[in-house]
Amino acid sequence: MNVQSAIIVGSGFEEFAASGDAQHVTTRFGNPSAPIRPVDFDGHTVYVLPRHGDDHTLPPHVVNYRANLQALKEIGTEAIVALNTVGVVSDKREPGQVAVPDQIIDYTWGREQSIYKGDDAEFAHIDFTEPFSGTVREALLAAAAVARVDCYDGGVYAATQGPRLETAAEVDRLERDGADYVGMTAMPEAGLARELGIEYACLSLIVNRAAGRGEMPIHEDVESSTLTARMQAMQILKQYFGPR
How much is the pTM? Predict the structure, then answer.
């Protein structure tokens, strides 16, 4: 990806995001979750923004997604890799693995879903048939292949409201709807990125079996699987943003 890129990081990556000199950006939607910092990948500068704040104090339903995406746009970001932790609904993946989803179902509510506020000169009905950038997805999968990481190509991401986890009955409904993974942050990020003309795709870290699907309590599942998934994600990122 020979463009100015950014990573939006989620749970467990706060220390990674705190390594560069902070850039404080204010947008028409307010301040982003945290300062944006440049991180060096073997000579390639990548912007990093922790979506939940530097101290991980912002739950998914109150994140200012519009400010986050607008701030990245204003500093020249052309492509975003969004890291998010998810539970697995279907049998396509196991905890501790990673995936690059290709579709999304939005179950969130009450979040600001668009950059258009009603006082704009014009607005656009974006084509969201394919919600994730094919270019970024293909590059992530190619990087995973070089890194020899077993990364699943595709799957449907169900974006739920949070911050509570889902009930077993809700997960059953998600599976009936065709969902493979469940998380809380890919929407409205993906839609806002499309409105702003930024290429966007998710690298999803599967850290637990969704409610009613596992043999251990969810938080124990997360604790035992997160480090493995995180290490695989970092291997992919190092190849994705590696030397040119």
Answer: 0.92
